[in-house]
């Protein structure tokens, strides 16, 4: 970049479990170490802090990889004329939303759910009504909810430190197996701040609008399950995009960018 005065990009490719995400992290860590920051905001630390957050919300255990990226990520690191980091911007692709509601045998949902469950005893999470991951339908379909050699509570502390560095104030809920008139639906509505009766009604009914009339039709059990799952996937996708947007705000700079290096980590 400095010799040829041209922007550069690194494409990290390989099959699942080959080490793409770790290689991408090492590449960013190298840039942060050798370049330093152009200001006193420690922007290079913030760039590195994005990794544990994105791994928590976008990585999961699969049969081939205990820390598999289930989305693609392109991060563009900006430099000034003295080749010091001034900011960064991230784009994400193809989040595997289906994992939120279904996991195959010996696989897990996204790490963040298990990290939150492992931290359920913390006083600040008391209102989330969290228990162990085995208690939730959306986190126990794969069987074993733990990963050998991984401490979810310890990883959550790293995730929370990264959130703090990037100035997040976050509150989230774990989507349970929703059924009308049960405690899980009550918790769900309280956490999202929506009206219980309305949520109960529209999880079990759908509205059909014609040119002349509007019908409200009761859905079958399978349609209700599909609606519940679609809602859970939509909520998680919106949360994922919001977190990425907030990270980009934290990494944004008003300084003029002279050049950049892009790192593309596409999942195998």
UniProtKB/TrEMBL annotation:
InterPro entries: Kinesin_motor_dom_sf, Myosin_head_motor_dom-like, P-loop_NTPase. Pfam families: Myosin_head. GO terms for biological process: actin filament organization. GO terms for cellular component: cytoplasm; membrane; myosin complex. ATP binds at residues 14-21. It comes from the Eukaryota. SMART domains: MYSc. Keywords: Actin-binding, ATP-binding, Motor protein, Myosin, Nucleotide-binding. Residues 1-268 form the Myosin motor domain. GO terms for molecular function: actin filament binding; ATP binding; microfilament motor activity. Belongs to the TRAFAC class myosin-kinesin ATPase superfamily. Myosin family. This is Myosin motor domain-containing protein. The lineage of its organism: Eukaryota, Metazoa, Chordata, Craniata, Vertebrata.
């Amino acid at each position: 970049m400095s010799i040829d005065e041209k922007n550069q990009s690194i494409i990290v490719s390989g099959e699942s479990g080959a080490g793409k995400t770790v290689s991408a992290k090492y590449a960013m860590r190298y840039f942060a170490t050798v370049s330093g920051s152009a200001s006193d905001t420690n922007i290079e630390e913030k760039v590195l802090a994005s990794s544990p957050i994105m791994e928590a919300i976008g990585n999961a255990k699969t049969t081939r990889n205990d820390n598999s990226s289930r989305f693609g990520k392109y991060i563009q690191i900006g430099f000034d004329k003295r080749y010091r980091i001034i900011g960064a911007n991230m784009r994400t692709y193809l989040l595997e939303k289906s994992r939120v509601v279904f996991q195959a045998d010996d696989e897990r949902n996204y790490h963040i759910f298990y990290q939150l469950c492992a931290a359920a005893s913390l006083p600040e999470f008391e209102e989330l009504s969290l228990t162990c991951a085995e208690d939730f339908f959306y986190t126990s379909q794969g069987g074993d909810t733990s990963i050998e050699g991984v401490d979810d509570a310890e990883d959550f502390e790293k995730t929370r430190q990264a959130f703090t560095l990037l100035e997040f104030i976050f509150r989230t809920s774990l989507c349970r197996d929703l059924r009308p008139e049960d405690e899980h639906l009550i918790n769900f509505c309280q956490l999202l701040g929506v009206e219980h009766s309305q949520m109960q009604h529209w999880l079990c009914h759908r509205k059909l609008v014609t040119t002349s009339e509007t019908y409200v039709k009761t859905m079958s059990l399978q349609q209700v399950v599909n609606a519940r799952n679609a809602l859970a996937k939509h909520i998680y996708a919106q949360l994922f995009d919001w977190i990425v947007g907030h990270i980009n705000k934290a990494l944004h700079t008003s300084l003029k960018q002279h050049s950049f290096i892009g790192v593309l980590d596409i999942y195998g």
